[in-house]
UniProtKB/TrEMBL annotation:
Name of protein: SDR family NAD(P)-dependent oxidoreductase
Classification via Pfam families: adh_short_C2
Organism: Microbacterium koreense
Superkingdom field: Bacteria
Keyword Transit peptide: no
C-alpha cells in the first residue's frame, strides 16, 4: 500500500459490518469496513461510525493504524451531526468523509408504504447531507476536503424491486453533485461510487449463497464484485490521484450498466 493518506483523518459513516463472513473467513466484510481498512492501510487515521458500536470497534481493531469508533444512528438527525462533531474534535480535523450507510427496501410503487419510504429517505439521503453539512465548515476553514458517497446502480437504473431505494439512491447522487458544484472553488471535492452487485456482508445476509450466484449471472464479468474492490474505487476518488475530479459518479458494476440485456451463452 502507498501512503496517499498519511497525515489525513477520514470518517466512514457505516463502517461496521452486519452479516455473515465469506466462506473460509472469520471477519464479516462489508463495503464500509473494507473502505475503512483500505484508507487506514494507506496511512489515514480513520473514525468508524456505526449504529452498533461493537461493529465499529471490530473494524477499528483491524485497522493498520490509529482509529476511533463512534456510535451513530443514521436515522436520527441529531446523532448524525453529533458523530461528526466527536470525530472532528477528537483528531482536530476531518479531511475525508465517506458516506456509506444505506438500507434497502422491497416495495414497488403499488404497495410502497410511507413508513418504508420515510426510513429509506432518513438513512439513504438525510443522514448523508447532514453528515456533509456538519463536516463542511471545518473543511472550508482549512481550504480542502473530500466527500465520497457510496451509491448504487439503483440510483441510475431501475430493478423494479424497490421504489424507496431507487428514489433515495438517486437523491443521494443529487446531494453529491450539489456539494461538488457549490464548493469546488473553495477546495472541496465531492464524488460517488455507484456500486452494482457486490458480495458484501449485507448482501449475503439478505440473499444468501444461492442469491449471490443468481446475481452473478447478470454480470458480464460473471461474478459479483468484492467490498475490497469497492474500497479501492473510494480510495481513488478520495486521493490526490483524483484531484481534478469532482461531481462524478464512478460506476463499479462489472459491466452491467454497459451491457445489452441478452442471455449469457
Amino acid at each position: 500500500m502507498t501512503g496517499r493518506f498519511s497525515g489525513q483523518v477520514a470518517y466512514v459513516l457505516g463502517g461496521g459490518s452486519d452479516g455473515p463472513a465469506r466462506s473460509g473467513e472469520s471477519l464479516p466484510m462489508g463495503n464500509g469496513r473494507a473502505i475503512a481498512m483500505r484508507l487506514s492501510g494507506e496511512g489515514a487515521t480513520v473514525v468508524v461510525g456505526d449504529k452498533i458500536l461493537e461493529r465499529a470497534q471490530t473494524t477499528v481493531a483491524h485497522l493498520d493504524g490509529p482509529g476511533l469508533s463512534v456510535e451513530v444512528d443514521a436515522s436520527d438527525a441529531a446523532s448524525c451531526a453529533a458523530a461528526v462533531a466527536v470525530a472532528a474534535d477528537f483528531f482536530g480535523r476531518l479531511d475525508i468523509v465517506v458516506c456509506n450507510v444505506g438500507v434497502s427496501g422491497r416495495e414497488p410503487l403499488k404497495v410502497q408504504s410511507l413508513e418504508d419510504w420515510t426510513f429509506a429517505s432518513d438513512v439513504n439521503v438525510r443522514s448523508h447531507w447532514l453528515t456533509a453539512q456538519a463536516a463542511l465548515p471545518g473543511m472550508l476553514d482549512s481550504g480542502s476536503g473530500t466527500f465520497v458517497f457510496v451509491g448504487s446502480t439503483a440510483g441510475i437504473l431501475s430493478s423494479r424491486r424497490s421504489l424507496s431505494y431507487e428514489a433515495t439512491k438517486a437523491a443521494q447522487l443529487a446531494v453529491m453533485r450539489h456539494v461538488a458544484v457549490r464548493y469546488a472553488d473553495r477546495g472541496i471535492r465531492s464524488n460517488a461510487v455507484v456500486l452494482g452487485n457486490i458480495d458484501s456482508a449485507l448482501v449475503r445476509r439478505e440473499f444468501g449463497e444461492d442469491g449471490s450466484m443468481a446475481r452473478a449471472q447478470v454480470v458480464p464479468m460473471a461474478r459479483e464484485g468484492r467490498p475490497e474492490e469497492a474500497a479501492a474505487a473510494v480510495a481513488f476518488l478520495a486521493s490526490d490521484d483524483a484531484a481534478y475530479i469532482t461531481g462524478q459518479s464512478l460506476v463499479v458494476d462489472g459491466g452491467v450498466s454497459a451491457a445489452w440485456p441478452v442471455p449469457r451463452p
